[in-house]
Specification:
By secondary structure, the chain is of the alpha/beta class. The protein is 41% helix and 21% strand. The strands form four sheets. A six-stranded parallel beta sheet has the order 3-2-1-4-5-6, sandwiched between helices. Strands 7-10-11 form a three-stranded antiparallel beta sheet.
């Protein structure tokens, strides 16, 4: 990152459920000493800033305030959460036209600022909006990426941990591709602390389980989690807020963490001209490189299909 940046500052654009929850999680993280909230509804941003500020004396000292786009120019990380919410019965891809339009208005404000930090796109459909942000922001690709399937992967770890009665942090498995209905669980490389899943199921006395059915059920549960939560409480925001915190931690601490973020594809796995989630090294400069993982031929084919679905849904969209 450029030394002229305020390396202790984060900006959150959009103060809806996801933006405000992310801001709250970031306030508690201790990563930053300054946070600016930007929203088209200035009163909403001011209210959220006040509410979060009142908790800083119980957590970590931090300046939290509502601002304008000019206030984000020196931020180390710009978190973009603005957009229309996914409604019950809607898919993430249903939000394309509305949210590309909203993103374009945001990038029109941001591009002249020539920000030198990292931009994290969280709004849905995150893969298409990440691609749009890369094209519209004028920023280098490595410094613009999306939250991708970080939350989907966390949900998978949670479900596997529950099923195996083991700490979910010891589960290693990836959800890749679109953050949405065509996402893929890479079962072929899934393990618990290097022990293959089949062996670990046997270790836990479940060796007679129907793996094909169990894997399908868990993959469907991961994919449909958001729909179920939205049906019950109208929106999802706590899980994604924790994902934002995790990604920001990797950036600010230059952890070189491997996370399944949404980033541009330029030929890997035979995929180009779109952004989708694959494991990548994330550090202070953003996405450093993709990390190749073992995949079966079927998983590779499903990944290409996921990319094709994204590209089909981007047809006719003006990214200039």
């Amino acid at each position: 990152m450029n030394s002229s940046l305020n390396l202790r500052k984060v900006a959150v654009i959009g103060c809806g459920f996801v933006g405000s929850s992310s801001a709250f999680a970031l306030m508690q993280s201790g990563l930053f000493s300054e946070m600016v909230l930007v929203d088209v509804m200035k009163d909403k941003a001011e209210g959220e800033a006040m509410d979060i500020s009142h908790g800083t004396s119980l957590s970590t000292p931090m300046k939290v305030y509502a601002g304008d786009y000019k206030d984000i120019a020196d931020a180390a990380i710009i978190v973009v959460t603005a957009g229309a919410n996914q409604k019950p019965g809607e898919t993430r891809l249903d939000l394309i036209k509305k949210n590309v339009g909203i993103l374009k208005s945001i990038m029109t404000e941001i591009k002249p600022l020539n920000p030198q930090g990292v931009m994290l796109v969280v709004s849905n459909p995150v893969d298409i909006l990440t691609w749009a942000a890369m094209k519209m922001s004028g920023m280098p690709e490595n410094r613009v990426f999306g939250s991708g399937t970080v939350l989907d992967t966390a949900r998978l770890h949670y479900l596997l941990g529950n099923k195996l009665d083991v700490d979910s942090r010891s589960v290693h498995a990836w959800v890749v591709g679109e953050h949405g209905d065509s996402e893929i669980v890479c079962w072929s490389s899934a393990n618990v602390s290097s022990v293959p899943l089949a062996d670990f199921f046997s270790l836990r006395g479940m060796g007679d389980i129907d793996f094909a059915n169990a894997e399908k059920e868990m993959a469907d549960d991961v994919k449909n989690s958001a729909y179920e939560i939205i049906a019950k409480k109208k929106a999802t925001y706590y899980g994604i807020a924790m994902s934002v915190k995790k990604i920001c931690t990797a950036i600010m601490r230059d952890e070189k963490s491997i996370l399944p973020v949404s980033t541009a594809m330029h030929g890997a796995y035979g995929i180009s001209d779109c952004a989708l989630s694959m494991p990548a090294i994330v550090g202070r400069s953003g996405v450093e490189s993709l990390v190749p993982i073992s995949m079966t031929q079927q998983e590779r084919e499903e990944l290409v299909n996921s990319a094709d679905i994204l590209k089909k849904n981007m047809e006719g969209i003006d990214f200039d």
